[in-house]
Amino acid sequence: MRRSDREVKEFKDIVAIMEKCDVCRIALNNDGYPYILPLNFGMCVRDDKMELYFHGAMEGTKYDLIEKDNRASFEMDCEHKLVTEMERGSCTMEYESVIGQGHIEILSDEEKYNALRILMKHYHQEEFPFHKAVMPRTKVFKLVVEKVTGKIRRKKKDKH
């Protein structure tokens, strides 16, 4: 990372950023071009290992690409704040972000329910009783994270 002063070094702090995010963008290989998708997600962290869970329709371009190459990169960000300095005529953006990479696995029908519970937990404080009738019409997949880094950009306070 070029700006090591902005790097989030502790795994637990990276997880805390991810818990605040509501969209995860994944990038898949599309014949040499990235194919980027914004997705809702859930995550499971055990023993410094992380899995991200996603859902979607039963077919589509993303599944065709995953079948050819299941490697993926991901990005998520939050805590955006525009900071302007009128006297200097400049502005910057504060943020927290995470990027990483791993590989995707399509889940079996037996694995779907627990994965969807993890996904729903990310958006609901309490257990959300989703209707199981959606499961046959829903494909669920996970990204097994192999590498992850975090970054926080905060404007430095002026010294007086």
Report the order of strands and helices.
Answer: EHEEEEHEEHE
User: How much strand content do the residues show?
Assistant: over 45%
Judging from the principal axes of the Cα atoms, what is the shape?
globular
| Mean pLDDT across residues | 89
Radius of gyration: 18 Å
Number of helices: 3
Number of strands: 8
| Approximate helicity band | 10-25%
| Uncertain residue segments | none
The separation of the N and C termini measures 30 Å
In terms of structural class, how would the helical and strand content be classed?
alpha+beta
Major sheet size, sense and barrel closure: 8 strands, antiparallel
Based on the model shown, name its key terms.
single chain, 160 residues, alpha+beta, 8-stranded antiparallel sheet, 8 strands
SSE inventory with pairings:
Elements: E1 7-8, H1 11-20, E2 24-30, E3 33-39, E4 42-46, E5 49-56, H2 61-68, E6 71-85, E7 90-106, H3 109-123, E8 139-153
Antiparallel strand pairs: 1-8, 2-3, 2-6, 4-5, 5-8, 6-7, 7-8
Q: Explain this structure to me?
A:
The mean pLDDT is 89. The chain starts with 6 loop residues before the first strand and ends in a 7-residue tail after the last strand. The protein is 21% helix and 48% strand. Strands 1, 2, 3, 4, 5, 6, 7 and 8 form an 8-stranded antiparallel β-sheet that branches. It is globular, with a radius of gyration of 18 Å. It has 160 residues and is of the alpha+beta class.
